[in-house]
């Protein structure tokens, strides 16, 4: 089997690494250079999209902000999973919200904004504070504003108008209620062509400046897991979804509210490489290649630490049992996702102890907020 991934970043790379032992070849279409590459070696195959599509059995995606012409061409091949619709829903907060309402899955109150008057109205309909998010192209907290007071409407809207003017014609803003969450969690699940669904244990996530910094599992009661599984099943079934799908939630006093969807493998599922029987990358490939799904059972408690903007970790980390480094082979840039570290242990107490040993090796400056976040594991 040959799988072509739209996007040639670390997610395609980890799919390729997971596919190798199964004899699944993964190629990646780099949407910036318009060429097909090997996602690990970055060898250039000198193929354009049409040749890449012709040459593969299945097309999939590692991100949801795919240019329209590429989406349409991929869909027309009949090889694209989870397919154009799921990617469009994941890439446009308006469609995402409509879908959540249609399948009756709880999410934060919202209003789509076109004008300043709409924003004014949102402050009375929804209340303050509000989070204002761009409908398209949002990731890592980019394209977001916080409105705390009605006095700031003019200033905030002026910034948004500049942003909208520089954005695509189809861009808009979505105002969302500020959710007073107790914590953020996500669920990663997989659905195959026959409609079978398998869901990993809920993961708890900590963000620093809008970017994921720490995830760990297990992190929820059976009751909360059931809420997540129900939401996953409703959404995946409605989309006739094939592949791995991630759902981010706010946990508000034991009730899950959906924050957003990611129609792909997800950063908060990287722990499955060491903590689950079959990792999210392999399960995604199994689903899109129409192989039986692998177990999503947790085999040992596991945490994941993102390596952001730095390209060095003390090699003593390798000496810690259960600690696994995953570098993405990228050039260093401030804030860039350069790799991650999984820490797995036989039980939660051991996990916390091992995570603390790892954190002692990581400079606070490169890993801000991690020590505080790890306290919450206890
Ligand atoms: P991602 O990289 O996860 O795709 P994104 O840019 O799509 O990020 P969101 O997940 O919508 O952004 O928001 C980023 C973070 O901002 C959330 O993880 C959460 O911490 C905070 N946040 C977003 N929306 C709300 C909200 N309505 N109430 C409270 N906090 C919020
Ligand atoms: Mg997002
Ligand atoms: Mg998010």
Question: What does this molecule look like?
Answer:
- It is an enzyme of class 6 (ligase).
- Pathway: Purine metabolism; IMP biosynthesis via de novo pathway; 5-amino-1-(5-phospho-D-ribosyl)imidazole-4-carboxylate from 5-amino-1-(5-phospho-D-ribosyl)imidazole (N5-CAIR route): step 1/2.
- Its EC number is 6.3.4.18.
- ATP binds at residues 93, 133, 138-144, 176-179, 184, 207, 259-260.
- Catalyzes the ATP-dependent conversion of 5-aminoimidazole ribonucleotide (AIR) and HCO(3)(-) to N5-carboxyaminoimidazole ribonucleotide (N5-CAIR).
- The protein is of the alpha+beta class and 378 residues long.
- It has three domains: 2-80, Rossmann fold (3-Layer(aba) Sandwich), CATH 3.40.50; 109-177, Dna Ligase, domain 1 (2-Layer Sandwich); 183-375, D-amino Acid Aminotransferase, Chain A, domain 1 (2-Layer Sandwich), CATH 3.30.470.20.
- Helix content is 31%, strand content 26%.
- The chain is built from twelve helices and 17 strands.
- The chain has helices spanning 10-19, 49-55, 68-76, 84-91, 93-102, 116-125, 153-166, 222-238, 272-275, 280-288, 348-361, 370-375; strands at 2-6, 25-30, 35-37, 58-61, 110-113, 130-134, 144-147, 173-177, 183-191, 197-199, 203-208, 211-217, 243-252, 255-262, 302-308, 323-327, 337-344.
- Strands 9, 10, 11, 12, 13, 14, 15, 16 and 17 form a nine-stranded antiparallel beta sheet that branches. A four-stranded mixed beta sheet has the order 3-2-1-4, with helices on both faces.
- A hairpin with a 2-residue loop joins strand 13 (243-252) and strand 14 (255-262).
- Helix 1 crosses helix 10.
- The radius of gyration is 20 Å and the shape is globular.
- The mean pLDDT is 97.
- The structure holds adenosine-5'-triphosphate (ATP) and magnesium ion (2 copies).
